[in-house]
Design brief:
By secondary structure, the protein is mainly beta. The chain has one domain (2-145): Porin (Beta Barrel). Helices cover 13% and strands 63% of the residues. It has one helix and ten strands, in the order αββββββββββ. The chain has one helix at residues 2-20, and strands at residues 23-33, 36-47, 50-58, 62-74, 80-92, 97-109, 115-121, 124-128, 132-134, 138-145. Keywords: Signal.
Length: 150
């Protein structure tokens, strides 16, 4: 019941934020994520080559990553884009943890359908509760794109 309330609040605020901001993509991320394996994945544009990549995961606890991608560029003249960034990583459970996550990834936005598929590597340094480093954090993203391709 506790997790259902948290899920409802997160979805409500996430929907509100996406309606108020320029929500670009919303979907799901599969892969290791602070003790969980699936996350709600969203991308919010800040400009042509800058964005926020946020994830909220549920399972044994609630994980939240909010990654700023100041580097978001096309790969040559292909339809692939690569991105890199960093931001806070929070895991709410017993024990609580807080840290910093880095991110580097690649994605492909289909022109015919509003779907974006990507893969990323997100090494994380936890600094609160326990200090440790996780380099084996990989993910697969599948998101629905709202609007046109940048």
């Amino acid at each position: 019941m506790k997790y259902l309330k948290i899920l409802t609040l997160v979805l409500f605020f996430g929907l509100g934020a996406s309606l108020e901001s320029n929500a670009q993509e919303l979907g799901i991320r599969f892969g290791q994520f602070g003790g969980n394996n699936v996350a709600i994945d969203g991308v919010f544009a800040l400009g042509e080559f800058s964005r926020i990549h946020g994830d909220v995961s549920f399972g044994s606890g609630v994980g939240i990553d909010l990654i700023w991608n100041p580097l978001y560029r096309p790969v040559g003249s292909s339809d692939f884009n690569w991105y890199a960034g960093f931001g806070p990583s929070i895991y709410i459970d017993d024990p609580f943890s807080f840290g910093v996550a880095g991110e580097i990834g690649i994605e492909y936005a289909f022109e015919e359908v509003p779907i974006v598929i990507g893969a990323d590597w997100r090494p994380t340094l936890r600094i609160v509760e326990n200090t440790d480093f996780f380099a084996d954090v990989f993910g697969l993203n599948i998101r629905w794109r709202f609007g046109n391709i940048n």
